Amino acid sequence: MISVSKLLCDLDAEGDGLRYDAAEESGKPQITEEKQRRPVVVWNVTRQCNLYCQHCYASADTETAPGELSTEEGKTLLSELADYGAPVVLFSGGEPLVRDDLEELIAHAADLGLRPVLSTNGTLITEERAADLRDAGLQYAGVSVDGLPERNDAFRGEEGAFDAAVRGIENCLDAGLKTGLRYTITDHNAPDLEGVVDLLTDVGLDRFCFYHLDYGGRGTEILDADLTPEERREAVERVCDMTREYHDRGEEIETLLVGNYADAGFLVEYAREHLGTEQAERIYQYLRVNGGDPAGERVANVDYQGNVHPTQFWQGYSLGNVRDRPFGAIWEDESNPVLRDLRDRDDRLTGKCADCQYQDVCRGGSRLRALTVHDDLFAPDPQCYLTDEEVGVADARAATR
């Protein structure tokens, strides 16, 4: 995640220590006081979902899939994550609220000292369920809304999904749960971006996470709905402009970009143009600490059957199963070639990524997208929208002539 509001507007957030090793600069309570040393773990507690979204990386279905980790197996996993030192566990799905033991699992995580957070479509969050989640120890609920009503409902395969999600957001806020938006930008919904933010800001939200489409699960079936490089650049610039406009009006909304570390290089370029060289350099140093794409290092995934993946989007490749070995043993096992190469990718990147001046703040972006499009783990991320001049490739080419 890249915090646009932190970098462009100096807005304090609870993740400043986790992302930028800058806890001492923040006036807000921190998730951790120092940059994470262990991965944030996304646990897909179920594959079942009450919706059928076009971009679902987990290929969720309306029926329960066989082999789901039981309550006791889930508690064992959470204990392993706590022992290993994972700072955060994100309960995801499918739709995690279809599990009637969700609150029990959240409470167990909280008792172990893990920070439990939730990714949900929000449509099942009643007033009672929101209160139960709060009482269990949930620290944050990220609710997915992908456009204004017509586009969101078409994208999620259910009429009324938008209104139900907004009710879920309101119920979370009324219960005192920190709540935010999760919005995946595609060609279908990009025109709704500002409208969704304006509407949900009025509802009371002050945290917005904008995801780029990753090419996993059903996301691979809608590649033609992905933005062009020009459209992507425009969307990211709109997020930056919108963040600054809200901040200038005294409305401190937190905005984050997720899933495309070309955004890191763009933010430096944006800051240089709008805020000056000194501010751009400060932002660059924060992004160096953040470290670029986290797959296989600062983020991990455990699916509903206990398989461990380099990220939640990379469901097609398993590093091992927690029913066979503890999570920490799997994550530390660099005899796995994919895990080893992800952690040693800098000298393996090819194309413009190999010579990019922003490699240390991007690390080549999504390896899953590169693999999906180019059948090469170390090819350039097809979502990179920076120009040759911006990445420094043009200068390098000129120097060799």
Distance between the termini: 38 Å
Anisotropy-based shape: globular
Helix coverage percent of residues? 40-55%
**Biggest beta sheet summary:** 11 strands, mixed
- Protein structure class: alpha/beta
* Rg calc: 20 Å
What spatial order of strands do you see in the largest sheet? 1-8-7-6-5-4-3-2-9-10-11
SSE sequence, one letter per element: EHHEHEHEHEHHEHEHEHHEEEHHHHHHH
Residue share in β-strands = 5-15%
How many E strands? Answer: 11
How would you describe this structure in keywords?
401 residues, alpha/beta, eleven-stranded mixed sheet, 18 helices, disordered C terminus
Task: Describe the structure in your own words.
The structure is a single chain. The chain is of the alpha/beta class and 401 residues long. It contains 18 helices and eleven strands. The protein has an eleven-stranded mixed sheet with strand order 1-8-7-6-5-4-3-2-9-10-11. β3, α4 and β4 form a beta-alpha-beta unit. α5 packs across α7. The radius of gyration is 20 Å and the shape is globular. It starts with a strand and ends with a helix.
Layout of helices and strands, plus pairs?
Blueprint: E1 2-3, H1 4-9, H2 16-20, E2 40-44, H3 71-84, E3 88-92, H4 102-111, E4 115-120, H5 127-136, E5 140-144, H6 149-156, H7 161-174, E6 179-185, H8 193-203, E7 207-212, H9 229-248, E8 254-258, H10 262-274, H11 277-290, E9 299-302, E10 307-309, E11 320-321, H12 327-332, H13 337-343, H14 352-355, H15 359-362, H16 367-374, H17 388-391, H18 393-399
Parallel strand pairs: 2-3, 2-9, 3-4, 4-5, 5-6, 6-7, 7-8
Antiparallel strand pairs: 1-8, 9-10, 10-11
